[in-house]
Every structure is written in C-alpha cells, then in structure tokens.
Specification:
The complex is a heterodimer.
Chain A (H helix, E strand, L loop, with lengths): L3 H32 L2 H11 L6 H16 L1
Chain B lengths: L4 E5 L3 E6 L3 E7 L2 E4 L5 E4 H5 L9 E4 L2 E2 L2 E2 L2 H14 L9 E6 L5 H13 L4 E6 H8 L10 E6 L4 E7 L2 E8 L3 H16 L1 E2 L2 H11 L11 E7 L5 E6 L1 H25 L2 H10 L1 E4 L8 H9 L3 E3 L6 H11 L14
Parallel strand pairs in B: 1-9, 9-10, 11-17, 17-18
Antiparallel strand pairs in B: 1-2, 2-3, 4-5, 4-6, 7-8, 11-12, 12-13, 14-15, 15-16
The chains are: A mainly alpha, B alpha+beta.
Amino acid sequence: MIAMAPLTILFAAISVVSALTLAYLVWQEGQRVNKNNGMAAFHRHLDALSDDSRAHVRQQLHDHSNKQGRR
Amino acid sequence: MARDLAIDLGTANTLVYMEGRGIVINEPSVIAVNKRTGEVLATGQEAWSMIGRTPGYIVAVRPLRGGAITDFEITEKMIRLLLQRAGVSRFSRPKVLICVPSAITEVERRAVTDATRRAGAADAQLLEQPMAAAIGADLPINEPVGNMVIDIGGGTTETAVISLGGIVALEAVRVGSFDIDAAIQSHVRREHGLAIGERTAEEIKISIGSAMATADDRDAEVRGRDLVSGLPKTVILTAQEIRDAIEDVVAQMVASVIRCLAVAPPELSQDFLTRGMFLVGGGALLRGLAQRIERDTRVPVNMSDQPLEAVVLGAGHCVENFSALRGMFMDSRR
C-alpha cells in the first residue's frame, strides 16, 4: 500500500499535466479559429491595406522621387 | 531578434526590403560563378558587368528566366548571399516574403520556397507580384473599387484587377522586357548580319526603343561582330526599325492586358474608365508603351511614381503587417 503511493501520485500528476496540456491546446486552437474568423480577419486585412496604414509606403515613394529629382 | 525581409526576386533585378528599414538591396539578378570550384565570384552590379566578357571557367548568369528559377543551385547561392548581406546568420533567422509571378507553377513555387529556407530563412512565404505592386503603387485596394495594375517585368507581363484587398481577375504571360532585347538581337543579326550581346541589345532598347512613334525618335550607332567576316563592324539603327522588330512582343503584352479587361466583372470595368490602369515594373519604362496600351484598350493608363520599386515596397508593407495580411500569401490560400 505504502509502495503504491508514489506510483499513484506519479500517475495522478501525469494525468493532471496531460489534462491541462490538452485543455491549453484546445483553448489555443479556439483562439486561433476566432482570430482568423471571417469578418474580424477580413476587416483586419482591409485595415492593414488602408491609406493610414500605408503612410510609410507613401513616404518611401516620396523619398525615392526626391532622391531621383536631385540626381 | 531578426528583422523580417521582403524580396522581389525579379528576372532582371533583385530588391530586398528589411522590416523597419526600407529597401536595403537593389541590384541586377546576376551571379558570377567559378565553374571549376562552384565558388561565387561576384553578384549584382559587379556580376552584371561581367556578362558576355568572362573567361571560359567563369560563368556570369541570370538564374531566373520568365520569373522562374532555371538554376536551382545558383539561385540558392544568390538568396543565401542576399540574406547574409541583410544580416541573417545562424542565430537570427527572419521570416522572408518573396514576390513571384502569379503564373508560377507548383514546382517553381516549391523551388523558390525551398531555396529560401535552405538559404537560412525561418519561414518563406510567397506573394503574387501584381498584388504587391498594387500595394506599393499606393492604389486604394482596400476599397470596393476596381484597381487595375499592369506589371511588366524582365520575364513576365502580369495584369490584375484588385478590389477589396484581393485579386478579382488575373492574366499573366511569360513575355517581358528581356524578350524585347532578344527581338532586337535577332533583328540586328538577321537584317544587318551583326552579332551583338544582350547588354548591347538592352542599351539599344533604352536609347531608341519605343512601342509607338514619339517626337524624339532618333538613330543609334551600334558596334558588334560581323557574322560573315568575323571583324568588328558598326551599323546605324533607326527607331522605326527597332519598333518593327519588337512589335510582336509589344503586341503580346497589349493582348494580355485586353484579355484581363475582358474577364473583369462589368461593375469594376466602369471604374477603369474613370480611374485608369496603373503601369509598374521596369518594362513600363519603354517609351510610348503607356500610350500604346491606352490607344489599343481605350482606357487611360497612368505610370506609377516608382515603377521599379513598387513591388518590393508593397511586399515590404506586407512584412510590416505580417499577421494581418497573411491571408494574402500564396501558401495560406491552398
């Protein structure tokens, strides 16, 4: 009985860790699905292509034009 | 931490954009290799100046033709060198976004991503060149309006209609400005019995090549090797004869634009008439090409501010917003 106790504890610990890992993976997958979910992802995509978001592209185009103008 | 990179791996030029820094490399896609040892001797501008002028044991080549890898090993070496120059090491491995022609096959796609991963990238993603060009040309592609972009590169001509952040219609042909150079080379050989190299053909295209008659049409003196006597010889070429020589290639480019217009949804076609089409890529710099497309399609054509850099700037924007724009990458859509 006494000899079994450490084994029982070990198996219990393994079960708890496995259950927690599984729960974490399921939660992560859920988050990933939510993140890529239809409308939200589409709007994030459009926002990333908006005028405001592309201000740095415009700035670089402007810088290149100026550089070439000086040459 | 490694800064992510965007690479416009073009048939003619290679440009590299580094996250947070902008364009860090812009040079010809040429590599010079010692055939005996396999050692790389030069890349970019230095290797370009060696084309057609190397001793037997050195080969200066463009490893891409028609936007596709023709020599896998050399391309891998070239990408490895580009990544090294951009600061990539064993301990800092960036994500790399590579712009490729939209007409690329599955095998070619694998070749590019494999070459990039083997060259040291942590992750390699692909993006169609017209999409990147539209972002880099600062077109309002997030809006529900038709944006038409024509990207004429060294080996491909791609026309795309983009609306609401995605490609609506696409037409690509493996014809580009290198085919114009080849047409000039073949014309000079056939009509004047003169052998010229690809660099000379490119210089002729830049100095007197045009797609339509222009006010500043002029002649050019060209030196080469007489095919009969083998001696150096000089001939005079006119702008009109060069125009005739490249007509077939230009006609194929214009035909692909017309095909794309034909498959575009009618709602978006209305937008082209008011907003026009946008021309990007090195081939767009051919004199009279915009006017020629405008004449044949009856749709206004606008030149992009930076036709050579538009693709890499667009890809650079995607690198800066990697997670939000991941859905646009070719791998993620399969």
